[in-house]
Write a structure and sequence with these properties.
- Keywords: Copper, Disulfide bond, Glycoprotein, Membrane, Metal-binding, Monooxygenase, Oxidoreductase, Transmembrane, Transmembrane helix.
- It is found in: Membrane.
- Its cofactor is Cu(2+).
- The chain has 651 residues and is an alpha+beta fold.
- The protein has 3 domains: 154 residues, Immunoglobulin-like (Sandwich); 149 residues, Sandwich (Jelly Rolls), CATH 2.60.120.310; 204 residues, Sandwich (Jelly Rolls), CATH 2.60.120.230.
- The protein has 7 helices and 40 strands.
- α1 runs antiparallel to α2.
- The protein is globular and about 75 Å long.
- The protein starts with a helix and ends in a 40-residue tail after the last strand.
Length: 651
């Protein structure tokens, strides 16, 4: 161990003793003041447990114990792991929310040939304007760490004037260090709860890290890579029950059509044991052809228990009309996602005496090269328990309708479209005590670059439900939320997607094809309600008036007032004033509101066509804490890039 590592060991030992003597003892001994609020007692107890786990994690690293030797003592819910190279280099990390820092451990980062290793963070996977920690072997010892950042073109590495990669341990195979979420250094990349692009590489040639600037090292693809991940993630959820039942809903050797977009439907009957009600506690994908399956959904057939739904296995466009009732979402998956586990207090209901035993799997095949001869057997594996949990869970779709009433002009860095779940819908559809959202999956197609859902109660904006400023359609995780918002009747939820169409020559329309666009947030919540879809689009009357304006005032002769919406949008010659006009229409004019039950019927009690739009602040503030003496050298922050329509420089 290095001298600095020895000092840090002593420092953390003293720190842990101080924490436990001054914070934890009162909790364990029960010596709280009698008038202390119960919530504060619970918060102190939670903080105490977090600090003890953090101390144990660091002790394992600092005394050079293998991390797996400590795994049975560390909480299984706190430690996250991923193989950076998918086979050997293992990154483990733990989020310390109380101290606002991340503790990293890398196993097999080096071998006897390597002289250096780096781990860094990038906006969207580019090597330009990246924030990188270099770890180097000097004089036979792995004992040097240097905080650096790259030039905008990615050709050079600069030593940072503020060093924020805090080393705990480094030997011939492993290393451990920590970084704060926000170092208040403009040359560091601020960690956030959205998708982060983690860069890594290692090399055999010495680097000139003592110099202020040196060329970015060129290494092979086998010794470098980029992984998309959510670093600041909630604790993992463990399934407390041991008696699990498993149902697989999957395709069987389907010959995939040789066309770009196919939605394939498979209807099957559930197992007989589901005559009794169960709770789904986890679902996970079964992917047999990686890169071909874009996303999947499992739907229950919402009808009487004794209705037979015809079994089916073919293109969804030819699905029999009797299967249209198979529309209540049970489980879903998209590229980049893995297993989703329900919190221990809730589960999604499946089965029962009045439960129809038929279910539909819908698979979106994306085959842009139109390859022939592809065969797929993908599907979903669903785990459930017979001992029911406290709450029935539900799934709800927020965002935009799948319709060509919405369009994105070409040549835009970040054009925003918003889908509304208006206050009038939650007022008639939610229970008096509201619902708790615990899971969220954001979804777009190819041009989506940023997605968020905002929460409004009257004129007040509350904390966001979910936000991903660096969203990628290649990484659409179903995420357990650390902050679980309670949505009350009369609240509004606004889901906004930003689209980059810089390389396109014509507009992009809303729709089902992979070349069309979507804007969806699938939320998992409890207790379950009948509200299945809370989405919007611009109203029919508004769109008709818009095309009249474009034809008569803007002289767009290709617009036909009784023609197809898609053709009208595509005929417009887009200029910046016309882009602004379209955007203004979308954020000001009335909505066509889908406040729907699972059978696609709307809730009664309101006129949903031409419904009023929820007024929101247009500009969304960036999340950065106030930093003393921030940016004394007037450096351009790494997370500042090209600016979108609203002047938000996030790309």
């Amino acid at each position: 161990m290095t001298a600095s590592g020895s000092n840090l060991t002593k420092e953390y030992t003293q720190w842990s003793q101080h924490q436990r003597s001054h914070q934890c003892q009162r909790y364990h001994d029960g010596n709280y003041q009698t008038d202390r609020p119960e919530k504060l007692k619970h918060r102190s107890a939670s903080k105490c447990r977090i600090n003890e786990v953090t101390w144990l994690f660091m002790l394992c690293l600092l005394v050079l114990l293998p991390l797996n030797a400590c795994a049975n003592r560390l909480s299984d819910t706190k430690l996250h792991e991923i193989y950076l190279d998918n086979k050997e280099i293992k990154l483990s990390w733990m989020v310390d929310w109380y101290k606002q820092e991340v503790l990293f451990h890398l196993q097999n980062a080096f071998n006897e040939q390597h002289r250096w290793f780096y781990l860094g963070f990038s906006k969207r996977g580019d090597i330009g304007d990246a924030d990188i920690c270099f770890f180097e072997n000097q004089n036979g010892f792995f004992n040097v760490v240097t905080d650096t950042y790259t030039s905008p073109n990615g050709k050079f590495v600069h030593k940072d004037y503020q060093q924020d990669c805090v080393l705990f341990k480094m030997d011939e195979y492993t290393l451990a260090f920590k970084r704060k979420f926000d170092t208040c250094d403009p040359s560091d990349f601020r960690m956030h709860e959205g998708t982060m692009y983690v860069m890594w590489a290692r090399g055999e040639k010495d680097l000139q890290l003592a110099d202020y600037q040196f060329p970015f090292p060129n290494v092979s693809q086998h010794e470098s890579g980029i992984q998309m991940m959510q670093l600041l993630r909630s604790d993992k959820i463990l399934i407390p029950e041991t008696d699990l039942k498993v149902v697989e809903i999957r395709l069987h050797n389907v010959s995939v059509p040789d066309k770009e977009t196919t939605y394939w439907c498979h209807i099957q009957k559930l197992d007989d044991f589901l005559v009794h009600k169960h709770h789904i506690v986890q679902f996970e994908p079964i992917i047999t052809t990686p890169g071909l399956v874009h996303h999947m959904e499992v739907f229950h057939c919402e009808t009487d228990w004794n209705v037979n739904i015809p079994l089916y296995n073919d293109d969804c466009e030819q699905m029999p009309s009797a299967a249209k009732v198979c529309s209540k979402v049970v489980a879903l998956w998209a590229m980049g996602s893995s297993a989703f586990t329900y919190p221990p207090e809730t589960g999604l209901p499946m089965g029962g005496k009045t439960y129809n035993p038929f279910i539909r799997l819908e698979v979106h095949f994306n085959n842009p090269e139109m390859r022939k001869g592809l065969v797929d057997s993908s599907g979903m594996r669903i785990k459930m328990v017979s001992q029911l949990r406290q709450f029935d869970a539900g799934v709800m779709e927020l965002g935009l309708e799948y319709t060509d009433k919405m369009a994105i002009p070409p040549k835009q860095i970040g054009f925003p479209l918003s889908g509304y779940c208006i206050a009038e819908c939650t007022e008639v559809a939610l229970p008096r005590t509201g619902i708790v959202i615990f899971g969220s999956q954001l979804h777009t197609h190819l041009t989506g670059v940023r997605v968020l859902t905002r929460h409004f109660r009257g004129a007040d904006e509350l904390r966001e439900v979910n936000r991903d400023d660096y969203y990628s359609h290649h990484f659409q995780e179903m995420r357990n939320l650390r902050y679980k918002p309670r949505v009350l009747p009369g609240d509004a939820l606004v889901t906004t997607c930003y689209y980059n169409t810089v390389g396109k020559d014509n507009c992009t329309l809303g729709g089902f094809s992979i070349s069309d666009e979507m804007c969806v947030n699938y939320i998992h919540y409890y207790p379950a309600t009948k509200l299945e879809v809370c989405k919007s689009s611009v109203s029919e009357e508004t769109l008709e008036n818009y095309f009249v304006y474009m034809k008569k005032k803007e002289h767009q002769r290709g617009v036909h007032l009784n023609g197809a919406r898609s053709k009208n949008y595509e005929s417009i010659k887009w200029t910046q004033p016309r882009v602004d006009q379209l955007y203004t229409m979308y954020i000001q004019e009335p909505l066509s509101m889908q406040c729907n039950k699972s059978d696609n019927t709307r809730f009664q009690g309101y006129q949903w066509e031409s419904a009023p739009i929820t007024p929101v602040q247009i500009k969304i503030p960036m999340h950065r804490k106030l930093c003393p003496n921030y940016n004394p050298l007037w450096l351009k922050p790494l997370d500042r890039g090209e600016c979108d329509l609203l002047g938000e420089c996030i790309y």
